[in-house]
Amino acid sequence: MKKNLFTKLFARLLLLNSCSEKNPPVHLENSLSTTDYSFGIPEITEIKTKIFNNRFVEGNELIKQLSSDKLSHTIDCLALNLNEETLSKWYSETNKSDPSCLALGVFYAHKGWKIRTNAYAIDVEENHALSFSEYQIKAALLLEAIKTNQSLKAEAYSRLIRISMGLGNSEEETAYFENCIKIDPNNVWAYIHRSESIQPKWGGSQDKINDFLMVLPKGKIQNIVHIKLILDSFISQENLLTGGDFEIIELEKRTLEMDRELIANPLNSPFSFLVNGYMTLIFQELGNETLSDKYFSKMDDNYTLYPFGIME
Predict the structure, then answer these.
(1) pTM for the full model?
(2) N or C end: fewer C-beta atoms under 10 angstroms in the chain?
(3) Please, what is the average pLDDT of the chain?
(4) Up-side HSE of residue 125: CA atoms within 13 Å toward CB?
(5) Which residues, other chains included, contact 292 with Cβ-Cβ below 8 Å and sequence gap of 6+?
(6) % helix, strand, coil for the chain, step of 5
(7) How far apart are the C-alpha atoms of 252 and 249, rounded to whole Å?
(8) What residue ranges define each of the domains in the chain, with the CATH number in brackets?
(9) pLDDT (tens digit per residue) in 210-228
(10) What is the pLDDT of residues 142-186, one digit of tens each?
(11) Other Cβ atoms within 10 Å of 117 Cβ, number
């Protein structure tokens, strides 16, 4: 069996301390991760500190002001760096406020994946699979309870795409994607999740991918989805961008085009860290150590999440 691409990056991550001294994590015992996911972004650090110190109302207001790009990353940070007790207290003391529903729901979604692990379904122990499903359902109930704030509702729909995929509910996944982009047409994660859910490994098809690529918003979203599909092509050993034969030369050409695009139009959001990780892996697989090292350096100790599981 082909070696998992991500083990190659993990080996490099273990050589470094993922918690930078200049940005120590504000986390509690039994949090899902000890990695600091604030990445030194001032708004995220401030919000995490306020929730940690039980200043929930102030934290809620700051969360409601975030752009969708920063909102998604902030919620991951809170869900991973704070523990269930703190998140539950925030939820109860603010009368089930939308921000607390979102953070607690994402906590349970991540917890389910941490228990399940990234293994193939056939290799997951039965009790872990059951716990995974229970936590995904628990997460879905919280995310579906968000009714008031539209930006938080769109983020919840984006998360529900992934949850529906994990539970095998393709019709619900499609509906959540459509509901998300109706509210927020530029929700990047919604397109990332959708680009995976329609792949053959999830019961989709190349025709669905081709149709999806035709309607992608130009610019940032299109570039990120193309990069993700290049990475997924190596994982699946299929050329998901074109549906043609899996040829390294063609994928290398497309990746170099993406490299030039990122130089001309650099990303100025938390998604830059995600893309840096993807490009590190792709160039590593292509054997281009120069460009792999370039993107690994640009990650700057900020190891983002692959949609499944936690990158530690």
Answers:
(1) 0.89
(2) N
(3) 88
(4) 6
(5) 279, 280, 281, 283, 284, 286
(6) 65, 0, 35
(7) 5
(8) 5-299 (1.25.40)
(9) 999 999 999 999 999 999 9
(10) 999 998 899 999 999 999 999 999 898 989 999 999 999 999 999
(11) 15
